[in-house]
Amino acid sequence: MKYVIIGNSTAAVGCVEGIRSVDQEGPITVISDEPYPAYSRPLISYLLQGSTTEEKMRTRPADFYEKNGVTLLSGKKAVRIDDARKTVGLESGESLPYDRLLIAAGSRPFIPPMAGLDRVEKKFTFMKLDDAKALEAALTPESRVLIVGAGLIGLKCAEGIRGRAGSITVVDLADRILPSILDETGSKMMQEQIESNGIGFLLGDSVAEFGKDRAHLKSGKTVEFDLLVVAVGVRPNTELASQAGCEVGRGIAVDERSATSVPDIYAAGDCCECRDITTGQRRVLAILPNAYLQGEAAGVNMAGGEKSFANAVPMNAIGFFGLHVLTAGSYDGEEIVETKPGVYKKLVVKDNLLKGFILIGEIARAGIYTSLIREQTPLDTVDFDLLKQKPQLMAFTARRRAEKLGGAK
User: Is the dihedral of CA 274, 313, 188, 346 positive or negative?
Assistant: First the structure.
C-alpha cells in the first residue's frame, strides 16, 4: 500500500502515526512546500520573542521521518490530483502514485482588496516560519508597525514583536478584539492587558486607502507606519480537492472517518470542515488538537483500520503577556458568570449539557470542562454545583472517575 500525504503540519503527523499503528511497512511520502520538518506554527510569535528556537518548535524528534519510513519531499508543491490514475502531480513535473491519499494542505492568509495596498513596500503576513523570518529581517528598534486585524494571528504577532519595534498599532473593523472567541467582557479584559504592554488599538475602524507609508482610515484618522502586517483571516486550501472532484463547502467535506467524497482520498486539518458537536453545524475548526485527531483517524482508516473523529469542538488555549485564556464550545445558552480581579469565568449550559466556556486568569484543570463538552455528559449525572465552583474529578461518580483515570470501565 502506497500512502501520499499533501502537507506536513499537525494533521500530517497524526496521519503518519495513525498509518503506522496499523501498517508498519507501506511506504509513506509527505509533500511539503516548506523547507522544514513539521513544526508548530503558533510558536512563530515566541520565536520572534526569543523565548523558543526553531529546534524546539519541531513537533516531533529529528528522526521522526526515518523511524516511520517516511520520505519527506521538502520544498515541493503538489499542483494536481488525478483520481482516476491515482497520482499526485508536482510543480517540478514529477508524478507520485498513491493507493491512499491524504490532503492536509492547511490554509493561507486572506488578503481582501484594499485600495493602495500595492503601494506598500514592506508588507507581511504571519502564518508560517518564513513569514516570521521575513518580518524579523525587516524590523528595527525604531520600526512603526501597523497590524490590520485584531484576531489571534494579528495579536500574537503584536506580542511577538513588542520590544523589538518602536510602536505597534492594531486596526480592526470589529469594535472589540478576539471577537471570534471572546465575549465583550473577556475582550475588554484582554485588551486592557495588551494595552498595558504598550500596544495601541484603533477598533471599529478600517483602512480606506494605503499610501506608501501611511494608512488613511475610514474615520478620517491617519496612521503612519514603516511595516505593515495583514492578519485579517485565513482561507482553507481546497483547490486540489475541488479539482479532484471532492465535495467542498467552506472547507473540504469529510465524514467521521476523515474520508472525502472521492474514494481513497482523505482530508484533515485546517483545509477541512467538520461537524461542531456543540452547535450541530458544519464548519472549519482550524485548531491543533482537532487537526491531529482528524489526521490520526484518517491514517488508521487509510491503512485499513477503523477509527472515527466525531466529537470536534472549537477550542483555543492562548495567552498574552502572561494572562492566559482557554475557550471551548459555543456560547448559546444559560450563562454562569464569575468575575474577580484578574479572573473571568463563564460557563454556558443548554439542554442539560455544558456547551462552552471562557476562562481567563484561572485555567487550572479546564480539561475537565472540555471533556464534559466533548463527551456530551448530561449535567444531572455529575455534581455540577461543585464543578461550577471548580473543575475536579470528585464531581463525577466513582465509576467515571476510575474511567477517566484509566482504570475500570
Answer: positive
d(CA 342, CA 275): 34
Contact predicate 251/271, CB 8 Å:
yes
Q: Helix, strand, coil: what percent of the chain each, to 5?
A: 25, 30, 45
CA neighbor of 105 nearest in space, from 244, 301, 305 = 244
Amino acid at 367: G
Distance CA 309, CA 296 (A): 9
Task: Find residue 227's DSSP bridge partners.
Answer: 145
Q: First CA to last CA across the chain, in angstroms?
A: 36
Segment 371-379 long-range contacts (CB within 8 Å, at least 24 positions apart): 371/404, 373/277, 373/278, 373/313, 373/328, 373/329, 374/277, 374/311, 374/313, 375/311, 376/277, 376/311, 377/353, 378/352, 378/353, 379/349, 379/352, 379/353, 379/354
How does residue 192 score in pLDDT terms, banded at 50, 70 and 90?
very high
pLDDT more than 70, % of the chain: 96
pLDDT of 87-131, one tens digit each? 999 999 999 999 999 999 999 999 999 999 999 999 999 999 999
Strand 100-103 relative to strand 3-6: parallel, antiparallel, unpaired?
Answer: parallel
Residue entry with cell 504592554: 197
370-384 tens-digit pLDDT: 989 988 989 998 888
C-alpha closest to that of 155 among 214, 213, 199, 221: 199
Q: Backbone phi, then psi, for 259, in 5-degree steps?
A: -85, 140
Q: Which residue has the cell 518580518?
A: 135
What nine digits make up the cell of 108?
493561507
